[in-house]
Amino acid sequence: MKPFPRIETKRLILSSFRPIDIPKIVAHASNRNVSRYTVSLAHPFTETDAVHLLEIANQGFKDSTHYVFGIWLRDGGALIGSIGLKLETQFQRAELNFWIAEPFWGGGLTTEAARAVIHFGFSHLNLHKLTATYMEANPASGRVMANCGMKKEGELKEHIIKDGAYHGILLYGLIKNDYTPPECLQEMSFVS
Question: Which domains does the chain have, with CATH numbers?
Fold first, then answer.
């Protein structure tokens, strides 16, 4: 099996999770302020949940259906979040998903990671389209998507239940023909 890809940007390293990362994943993902804005993170987020996340990531990579990257700071090596692509190969499409630890919100790191993974999807996985969704209560994720060139394609009213309440979901998309590689591309490197 080929090695998991590694992407480096100006400030980040994106690569596969390792079992040693489980305590940090739990520490960040169990933060109520992080989990409340994601569809997939449970609260409380436990070590069992983190082990399950790694199992899904490993199996998804083996099956070529899911790329789950940990996000590390280049300076100091701190694990700060996760970003991934869930592939639908029959349609040459993938769904982008991400979360970032609260201390790292607002500094453009999520956008930097998303731009790198979007470029990876179009240039290395030969995808035709990328989509992403966010809960209406989390407009910051929508700004990340817009900053990456994604366009709003729809709104699903009261589409999910989280914490006993209904939440709307907004859908964004980007087609390869509409994609413009980021100016910071020269600062990215891809190793597989």
Answer: 6-191 (3.40.630.30)
